[in-house]
Write a structure and sequence with these properties.
single chain, about 325 residues, mainly alpha, Alpha-lytic protease prodomain-like, Alpha-Beta Plaits, 2 domains, 9 helices
C-alpha cells in the first residue's frame, strides 16, 4: 500500500482514538473535579480538532501531482502541523490561566481513588499510541503522523503527571498539588507546541534539512561510482512523503547521451535503495574539465591529461556549492 494511503488510514484511526480518550477524561473530571484533569480534557478537544485537520491534510497530500502543483501536494502536511502546533500553544496558555485562577479561587477534589485508575488507563493508551505513531511516521516520512504521535506523547506525560499528583495528594492532603501540576503542564504544552510550529514552518520555507542532507551524502560516499567525477549544487527537499533531489553531476566529457543517462540512473538507484521509491530526481550532467583529472578516480582513462592526485570526499560544505570542485 502506498505510504500516502496508509498514512490516511492511520490518521482516521487516530481521530477515533482521540475521541475515546477525550470521553475517558470527561468521565474522570466528573468524578474528581480535578483542575489538572480539566486542563487535560481541554487539550484533548484541541487534539480532536488537530487530528481532523491532520486527516484532511493527508487526504490532500495523497493526491497526485497536477499542472497546478508540479511538486505534488505534500506541503499540506506542513500546514496541518503548523495548525496543530498553534492549537497546542493556545491550549497551553488556557491551562496556565485556569491554574492561576484556581490559586485565587481554590476548590476541593473528590473520588481520587477511582480517578487514579482512569488516569493510568488513559496514560497507557497514550503511550502505546505515541510509540506506534512515531514508528509509522518515521517509516512513512509523514510529518502529520509524527505530529499526531507528538500529541499522544504530550498526552502521556500530562496524564502520567496527573496520576503522580493524585498519589501525592492522597498521601499529603495538599490540594494545591493539583494546581501546580496543571501550571507545569501548561508550560510544557506551550514548549512542545512551539517545536511543532518551528518544524512545520521550516518545511514550508524549504529550509535545508541538514540531518537528511548528511544521510544522502553519506550514502553516496559509501557506494560512490567512478563515473561520478564530481557532485555539486545538491538540493534535498521533502514534500510530505516525497523526497525531491536535484544536483549537478559531473561525468566524463566524452560520454554520449546514453552513457551519461546510465550514470544518472545508477545515481538514482543508489538513492532509492536507501530512501525508497518516493524520490524525484532532477540531475543536470556536466562534462569534466581539465582541472577535474586530479580528482577523477577512473582508471586507464585515455583522455586523462593530468595524473590522479586525491579522491575528494564529498561533504555538506562542498556539495552545496554551485561550482565544480578542484584541488587548490
Amino acid at each position: 500500500m502506498p505510504y500516502s494511503k496508509q498514512n490516511l488510514k492511520v490518521q482516521y484511526f487516530v481521530t477515533a482514538l482521540t475521541i475515546v480518550v477525550f470521553l475517558l477524561k470527561v468521565v474522570t473530571y466528573i468524578l474528581t473535579h480535578s483542575l489538572s484533569v480539566l486542563s487535560d480534557s481541554l487539550e484533548s478537544v484541541v487534539n480532536i480538532a488537530a487530528t481532523i485537520v491532520g486527516s484532511y491534510s493527508l487526504f490532500v497530500a495523497s493526491k497526485p501531482k497536477d499542472k497546478d502543483h508540479p511538486y505534488g501536494h505534500g506541503k499540506a502536511e506542513f500546514i496541518s502541523a503548523a495548525f496543530q502546533g498553534t492549537l497546542i500553544i493556545g491550549i497551553g496558555c488556557l491551562i496556565i490561566y485556569k491554574a492561576i485562577d484556581s490559586f485565587i479561587h481554590p476548590f476541593s477534589l473528590q473520588n481520587l481513588n477511582n480517578g487514579i485508575w482512569l488516569v493510568v488507563i488513559i496514560a497507557i493508551i497514550n503511550l502505546v499510541t505515541a510509540l506506534v505513531l512515531n514508528r509509522i511516521g518515521k517509516k512513512n516520512k509523514s510529518l502529520a503522523i509524527l505530529a499526531s504521535g507528538k500529541l499522544f506523547q504530550i498526552d502521556f506525560f500530562t496524564t502520567a503527571a496527573i496520576a503522580i499528583g493524585f498519589i501525592l495528594l492522597l498521601v499529603t492532603g495538599y490540594q494545591k498539588i493539583d494546581t501546580l501540576i496543571a501550571l507545569f503542564l501548561g508550560m510544557y504544552v506551550i514548549f512542545d507546541g512551539y517545536k511543532i510550529v518551528r518544524q512545520s514552518l521550516a518545511g514550508i520555507m524549504d529550509e535545508a534539512d541538514m540531518v537528511l542532507l548528511k544521510e544522502v551524502i553519506t550514502e553516496i560516499n559509501l557506494s560512490r561510482n567512478a563515473k561520478w567525477i564530481d557532485l555539486h549544487n545538491l538540493r534535498v527537499i521533502r514534500y510530505g512523503s516525497l523526497l525531491h533531489i536535484d544536483c549537478h553531476l559531473t561525468v566524463p566529457w566524452y560520454y554520449n547521451v546514453n552513457e551519461a543517462h546510465e550514470a544518472v540512473d545508477d545515481f538514482a538507484v543508489l538513492i532509492q535503495n536507501k530512501f525508497g521509491d518516493s524520490v524525484e530526481f532532477f540531475v543536470h550532467t556536466d562534462p569534466c574539465m581539465p582541472f577535474s583529472c586530479p580528482i577523477c578516480t577512473i582508471e586507464n582513462c585515455e583522455q586523462r591529461i593530468a595524473p590522479f592526485e586525491k579522491k575528494l570526499n564529498w561533504n555538506i560544505e562542498n556539495v552545496l556549492s554551485n561550482s565544480k570542485h578542484q584541488l587548490s
